[in-house]
Amino acid sequence: MTNDRSAALGTQRRFAASQVRLPEHVLLEGTSGRILREALLLFAERGFYGTSIRDLGQACGIRSATLYSHFPAKENVLAELVRIGHEEHHRRLVEAASAGPADPGARLRRVVRAHVLVHAEFPMLAVVANNELHALSAELAGPALMLRADGRQLLIDILNEGIAAGAFEVPDAFLAVTAISGMGMRVANWYDPSLPYQPEEVADTYAEFALRMTGAGA
Amino acid sequence: MTNDRSAALGTQRRFAASQVRLPEHVLLEGTSGRILREALLLFAERGFYGTSIRDLGQACGIRSATLYSHFPAKENVLAELVRIGHEEHHRRLVEAASAGPADPGARLRRVVRAHVLVHAEFPMLAVVANNELHALSAELAGPALMLRADGRQLLIDILNEGIAAGAFEVPDAFLAVTAISGMGMRVANWYDPSLPYQPEEVADTYAEFALRMTGAGA
Amino acid sequence: MTNDRSAALGTQRRFAASQVRLPEHVLLEGTSGRILREALLLFAERGFYGTSIRDLGQACGIRSATLYSHFPAKENVLAELVRIGHEEHHRRLVEAASAGPADPGARLRRVVRAHVLVHAEFPMLAVVANNELHALSAELAGPALMLRADGRQLLIDILNEGIAAGAFEVPDAFLAVTAISGMGMRVANWYDPSLPYQPEEVADTYAEFALRMTGAGA
Amino acid sequence: MTNDRSAALGTQRRFAASQVRLPEHVLLEGTSGRILREALLLFAERGFYGTSIRDLGQACGIRSATLYSHFPAKENVLAELVRIGHEEHHRRLVEAASAGPADPGARLRRVVRAHVLVHAEFPMLAVVANNELHALSAELAGPALMLRADGRQLLIDILNEGIAAGAFEVPDAFLAVTAISGMGMRVANWYDPSLPYQPEEVADTYAEFALRMTGAGA
DNA sequence: GATGAATGAGGCTTCATTCAT
DNA sequence: GATGAATGAAGCCTCATTCAT
């Protein structure tokens, strides 16, 4: 670890990443896509309430009124980003849980890798999805909250399975889940492609940490 | 782990705690104290930009204009909360690092305990300090950022020390720091006194997790 | 008179009628006709300023932009309705004044009948023509104002004629005109086909009232 | 009747009066009063939707934001005017119905006089109360509608009473009420202090008209 | 300390209209 | 004829802040 790194971290406010990225399957063409991309950056940097629609319009090169040709309201731009973020996260978690050997250790490793990877690959999206959810109405936040609960349950099940199978030995399963989940979520706040780590390296290392926490480390 | 717990977690937006708490040494008498306490709740729930001074005044039972008899501006209310949060966090970290046996494992355990404990005891304060910092001007955010960097360095030093001494064996020291730091920070988002865990239990368990991550677990 | 009737009247805002009607000779085919009919309802209910072209487009099943393929501007839709309303009113008044016995009593009866009839048969049109005229530019409002003045003069002439001939005995001719004209105009606000009165009944009765007012009642 | 008069009437859009008047008991001091007075003129001239809060603020010599120190919303300014108008109208009607000789003819004369008088004395208020009610939400319009229904019932009762007592002979009581009520309401649209009629003259003459309509004329 | 009134700036959103497709 | 996207203006309202009382 160099001082440069800590210096870089020291000035961050909400996150370190500087590149706007969205999952590949997300349509980014046209004005709608432009709006989503610029909103991702602005909402991540300044928060939903800290971003005015004039800010957003200016970033997109349109008048703020034009925004309403593409989204019903400002809130719906956020809702779309939150949806994309949660769906991508959930999709990867589910895929990781099911694809590959079924033993708890291998599953845990795959799921933690996926969890971390999505936070390292899409840090802004994760920051927005995790930190700006409170700005959505209950109606618009609902789907995301359901996916979130589902993903958490997936991790809980693996932990319980591993404990039941004698593969894991943890002081407390619930706390293990919060710890594993939490450390992965925070990756979005500090990871930056300019750091000398590939997302996969972080994912692998965090997976190793998770296995060590469960007493099943290599 | 029961489904009840995960269900309760599933509805959270920014944090689970419901009780406003500030460190004991913080003066909370008079209108100024009332303002700080209500601001803590509102900023944690809705964010700085999502809270108007009218909201704040109403919560305090005063007109918004009265606020200016106690604070120069809205931003200074946040700055004060951010200061309190970071100072408490830093004070505890430094104290934990210095008090007690000097071997890396023991120090790491004490520091992680302190880190987690402050997030479990003052979840709202931590949420505000961690998530609303971006709403402060560089000038007002500066002191907090310095304390934050200092605390992180403290953890880095312990890790490096333990590695040098052969007490710790980690894939990567930087990633270990981010993981340990991150899982502790997220405690503020899910911990709630109504959960069947005392803050100390969480702190002890997370410290155990940290030691396991460093290969020095019990 | 039952309480039911007065209760029904009690909830009215601008008018009681619920059926959109326009004079038979008005072309209502095609999209232009549809626009006129829907505008009649909306302008009557909410007023010109209270109706957006989006509202109007939606009611017609078209996009608001399509409206401009049929009318130069929103104002011209109103102008057309105002024109139709005033022309129909004027045409009927003139016809009533000229067709039939020339004695003042008979003429007054016919003219009042026509005046009331048009308000009972086309209440929405009358409400729009009478209440929304102020939303038209002077240029577009001009023709309607001329027809209106002409119609009023027609009534004035009949009154003066009857007075000169000794057929009428009124305290004040001007006030008699305002009273007769006014009570007829208000018919548009309360008449509803669901009431147990045919438009002709109302017209006959009001004509009788007018004659009584002039001292020439049956 | 001169041509001048009809010419003057010919250019009117919504009403002829040019002087802003409110009942004497209405507090008109301070900014709130100023707002009410200017709103009365503007709403009468251009309608509620045709008047922007910037228009209103400018007329009052304040910024539009200041309006919100005195009224919760634009709609509440209208609601207050509507309330004042309906209460004044209702108060006078009730007073006229009860004060004086109880025979139906005398009561009818007094009530019609009151009805007309209030429309001649406060033409703008009447125009706003009668024509802009549709711009109020159901909640805010409710009280006015109740007063209106109550006033109408009062007239209905007098008519029925007179008929039962043999004092009146009308073709139809309901239509007599609509005619009497309607001709009085329209006074607000044409009466102007510059006309060579005192409000009392109009009221007396219209009362005479009403009595003639009921067959009880002098 | 506390407040009501005032303000300038700006919030989000809708307005009527245009135009290339 | 019809439309989706765009626009400049304007809609109502709330913002944080000031200041005389």
Describe the overall structure.
The structure is a homotetramer of 218-residue chains. Chain A has helices spanning 3-10, 30-46, 53-60, 74-98, 104-121, 123-131, 138-164, 173-190, 199-213. Chain A has 218 residues and is mainly α. The interface between A and B is large, with 57 and 58 residues. The structure holds a DNA duplex (21 and 21 nucleotides).
Structural class by helix and strand composition of chain A? mainly alpha
Task: Name the biggest interface.
Answer: A-B, 57 and 58 residues
| DSSP summary: helix tally of chain A | 9
Described by the principal axes of the CA atoms, the overall outline of chain A is elongated
Secondary structure: number of strands of chain A: 0
Mean pLDDT across all amino acids of chain A: 91
- Indicate the multimeric state: homotetramer
Residue share in β-strands of chain A? under 5%
Q: What kind of sheet is the major sheet of chain A?
A: none
Helical amount among residues of chain A, as a percent range? 55-70%
How far apart, in Å, are the first and last alpha carbons of chain A?
24 Å
Order of helices and strands of chain A: HHHHHHHHH
Low-confidence stretches of chain A: 1-11
The whole-angstrom Rg of chain A is: 19 Å
